Amino acid sequence: MDTMRERFAPVVSRMLDEDPRVAVVLAEIGKDGFREAMARHPDRVINVGIREQLLVGAAAGLALTGLRPVVHTFASFLVERPFEQVKLDLGHQEAGAVLVSAAASFDWPAGGYTHMSPGDVALLDTLDGWTVHVPGHPDEAETLLHHAVAAGDDKVYVRLSVQSNRRGRVIDGRRLVTVREGRAGVVVAVGPMLDTVLAATEGLDVTVLYATTVRPLDTAGLRRATQAAGTDVVLVEPYLAGTSTAAVSEALSDVPHRVLGLGVGRRELRRYGTVEEHVAAHGLDARSLRGRIGAFVRAQGRVAAGV
Fold first, then answer.
1. Its Gene Ontology molecular function terms (predicted)?
2. Contact of 16 with 43, CB cutoff 8 Å
């Protein structure tokens, strides 16, 4: 199976051929995947070099001329380093673009902390009007890329990862997908965390919801699930722990509820290791998740029983 990022360049290259509004802006990273597209569309595939602030600024300029720019590099260089340009050139000017990241939380451990960005979604949460897609499979990434480019002039972030579920799900770019139903709580698995969450909750009486679009959060779908399963919600996100707890709390603000946010911890892990070792160190492997989710659900059960 190809990775999400391997799927990215061919999909967007076809978009360049089919839609004269689409433009691609790169900062060296990922340019090899667009060599043929650059030869066909030299005016709409632009490599600015290792200049990430210019990367976003150039995309904003293209958007203001009526184009739909797709902007790509590692998450740490796409969201964190040029954040002022994301805030001002795109947000303040109301210019739309599709930011497509790679590497994100710790997909390339050998790159060190400079190439990790577990706080990317949380950082975008400080800005208004962003749609955030977190696919969990290359097929879903392709679907969400099409949704993002077709989204008029909206500001969209698509977070690609080497971590992937075994199979893709049917998604629409808006709603949560119910994967398993229970009555003792709701677990929301975001993107590539789904397979691990399903393994971790096997035998637990919980509803599992699958989220590939986290902003805006499908609050109506979440509320429907809690009507049957109760208002205890566990979030399992492949980025900074607790990133979406405020969104869940807002969705359930009129009813008593509890939220447990699980994800990447704030502590920096200073050894390269492997992706799997980072997953385990942050407690995002199936065994660790089962213990944390099970304890949360059992604790509420004891409270409900008056123990």
1. magnesium ion binding
2. no
Residue 267, sorted as left (phi over 0), alpha (psi -120 to 50) or beta, turns out to be beta
Task: Work out the angle at residue 169's Cα, subtended by the Cα atoms of residues 289 and 107, and round it to the nearest 5 degrees.
Answer: 55
- Do residues 24 and 70 lie in contact, with contact meaning Cβ atoms separated by under 8 Å? yes
Partners of residue 207 on adjacent β-strands: 186
pTM of the model: 0.95
Q: Bridge-partner residues for 209, per DSSP? A: 178, 188
- Whole-number Cα distances in Å, 118 to 104, 121, 269: 6, 8, 12
Within 10 Å of residue 111's Cβ, how many Cβ atoms? 14
Contacts of 120 (CB under 8 A, 6+ apart): 75, 76, 78, 79, 80, 101, 104, 157, 159, 239
pLDDT (tens digit, 9 = 90+) per residue, 198-238? 999 999 999 999 999 999 999 999 999 999 999 999 999 99
Do 177-304 and 4-159 have the same topology in CATH? yes
CATH of domain 4-159: 3.40.50.970
In which residue are the tokens 């509820």 written?
A: 257
Domain boundaries along the sequence of the chain: 4-159, 177-304
Q: Is the peptide bond before 69 cis (omega within 30 degrees of 0)?
A: no
Query: Residue 86 phi/psi, 5° resolution?
Result: -60, -45
d(CA 198, CA 208): 8
Return all residues near 260 (Cβ < 8 A) that are at least 6 apart.
232, 233, 234, 235, 292, 293, 296
CATH 3.40.50.80 fits 177-304, yes or no: no
